[in-house]
Amino acid sequence: MRVAVAGGTGLIGALVVRKLTAAGHKPVVLARSRGVDLTTGAGLGGQLDGCEEVVDVTNVMSVRRKPAVGFFAAATSNLLDAAATAGARHVITLSIVGVDDVDLGYYFGKRKQEELVRNGPLPWTILRATQFHEFPEPLVDGARGPFVVVPQELSQPVSADEVASALAARVGQEPGGYVRPLAGPEQLQMADMARRLVKARGSRKIVLPVRLPGAVGKAMTGGALLPREDYARGERTFAEYLRRVANRLS
Quick count: other Cβ atoms within 10 Å of Cβ 208? Predict the structure, then answer.
């Protein structure tokens, strides 16, 4: 079937597109690089024609509340309206474990996205996942000078590939509402993940863990980002991801 993938050029989106293609579906990528701006609706007209389902893995690189909420409010509304007009029957949305328990600006945006999906015009499925193995990468890449500042947080990181597989597997299934969240096989401190990534890359950067102030920092260090209910357990470990990183560099 034709399946729209909103955010289909990002980390998860590109993997979802690959898996849908392998399964015999025809992905339709919705992304700015493909001429579609979901925040304004520009270029969206006609793109969803014939799409029976939509996978939404859109994202914004901002931790501030106003831009995050603004992005997800506009992009989700435009996507759902266009999908309903085109006759789509199901939207599958990726969200985050702990989104209700951490008052980080970005998480307010994800809450808004979930609210719009729940109350929107289409039957829906929301899959919440923990942080990906790749989470420390932009922190390391964006560091200026010898120091990498990393928030103190306890995580249960999951393979991005396993998240993409879980999303692709929902295509063709009945809408499930909130399905079992997905988390990795081990609990790790984000600072340790960053240090191990730096070492795997052969870098000499120094990781500096910083606790965020107030309730946000307390929640992130206290396990609010861990699954609390029954969850699907990924199999791939962070060590496997690091081996792939090292192999790419060798």
Answer: 13
